[in-house]
Amino acid sequence: MADLHDALRRLAADATWPPTPDMSARVRAALEDAPPARRRPRRPLLAALLALLVGGGALAAPGAGSGLLERLGLRSATVTKVKALPASSLARRLDLGERRSLGAVRRDADFRLLYPAALASPREVYVDDGVVTFLYRARSGEPILFTQVAGSARTYLRKFVTADTQRVRIGGRPGLLLRGPHAIVFDARGRGTRVQAPRLARNTLLWERDGLLLRIEAGQPADELVRIARSVRPAVPASPTARRSSTRCSRPIARAAEPRLTPTA
Amino acid sequence: MVHPPPPTEAVLLSRARGGDLDAYEQLVRLHQQTAFRAALVLTRNAADAEEAAQDGFVKAWRTLGRFDAARPFRPWLLTIVANEARNRRRSARRRELLAVRAGSERGGAAGGPASPEGALLVAERDAALAAALERLDARDREVIACRYLLELSEAETAAALGCRAGTVKSRLSRALARLRAQAQIGGLDG
User: Are A104 and B163 in contact (CB under 8 A)?
Assistant: First the structure.
């Protein structure tokens, strides 16, 4: 084997590579032309962003400002209902982090991943600062996002919504169903706070389970989201073969019970 | 006249994290060859590799705030570039051979055989090995290329291939065994 190592080292010494293009100027130009880098806002900036999101400092005086309508909470998430979101926050650009293989994410995640059995295997998997997102496609082609993040005290998620918000129960656990556009303020593991534009300005279901904060965003009807949420379990997703015959998320709900909706607080 | 020493990578990183584009441009120059070649190993197309490396640098800048300064920069960067490269592997561009060739011009290099016959023999054996490397499947070829041709560390190889550092060793061992078998089929005795 030593000869093989030596021979490979000779190949390395003699390898002819295409010349490396100097990318520094082009990278710089791309960065100068592009919007500013997405960096976590510093604390003083956060206050300004929050004020912008809730329309004039409603958060600073809960209940007193005209922008703040109500606030709902889970253990590691709150949802703040406001009259209006700024138009700029309605961008629909999906920004899910770095795309990874499911195997790599399962290996590297700090927690045991959960899977919505109703959706089988995710099409794509993304990781962003410990936030794991599975991307699915409905039969209609519309994306469905299933996001999970360790919901410890260090991870805190705040959402601002304009539309209907309802409390639901998912497997006996409290959840929040948000209809319509929303904005997210996200604290990631104590490493700073940032504001995230909504990815899908559609229905969102938010609930907690096994120490995780879970979220489903989709254009599907609310009861479909509840059905998907109730199928979440810590199991390896079905094989691609099985996926073809498994549940299609756009099919009518057959046996799922009506979500137990309770009036908002 | 005494010139000040060039800033270290740690200094450049610190400046870049503070938003200094000049510092980041220097970091790009520092790592662009490794990034481009790693992307080339994965894409086997120079145009794809260039795009992947360039986009990787842009993305790295945008996520620099999340980089753990206590860790080495290159594996982190390679993870991003390799991800970009893998996303381009499906492009319709022509895949090229890895650019390795036998050392026919090496002659009696230091430590090598002294005679022209000996040099020719080594060159033929290396040519057979290069051909055997090409016959390996992508998974085997990539781990060998990362470790030997790019001379990446195990951690950097793991970053480029999207696997654990511990996996690199076993994957490399199996790949070398298959390379040896291929080389023997091709007439290289090892």
Answer: yes
User: Within 13 Å of residue A56, how many CA atoms lie on the same side as its CB?
Assistant: 8
Beta bridge partners of A185: A158, A195
The whole-angstrom separation of Cα B66 and Cα B68 is: 6
d(CA B151, CA B33): 12
CB nearest to A20's CB, from B36, B64, B176: B36
Q: Answer whether A20 touches B (CB < 8 Å).
A: yes
Tens place of pLDDT per residue across chain A (265 aa)? 568 888 888 888 877 788 898 998 888 888 876 544 444 443 433 333 333 333 322 222 233 222 333 334 445 455 544 444 433 332 234 556 778 888 888 887 778 888 888 887 788 888 876 778 888 877 777 778 888 877 643 444 555 555 566 777 888 877 777 776 555 555 444 444 444 444 544 678 888 787 788 888 887 787 888 888 988 888 654 443 334 433 333 333 223 222 233 333 3
Residue in A with minimal Cα distance to B41: A17
Residue B87: list chain A partners with CB under 8 A: 99
ipTM of the complex: 0.80
Q: How far is A202 from chain B (nearest CA, A)?
A: 27
Cross-chain Cβ contact A7/B53 below 8 Å:
no
Q: Is A4 on the interface with B (CB under 8 A)?
A: yes
| A45-65: burial string, b at 16+ Cβ within 10 Å, e else | ebeeebbbbbbebbbeeeeeb
Question: Please, how many CA atoms are within 13 Å of residue A188, restricted to the half-sphere of its CB?
Answer: 19
Q: Give this prediction's pTM.
A: 0.48
For chain B, positions 124-153, list CB contacts with chain A under 8 A: 125-126, 129-130, 133, 144, 148-149, 151
CB B47 within 8 A of CB B61: no
Query: In DSSP terms, which residues pair with A74 in a beta bridge?
Result: A77
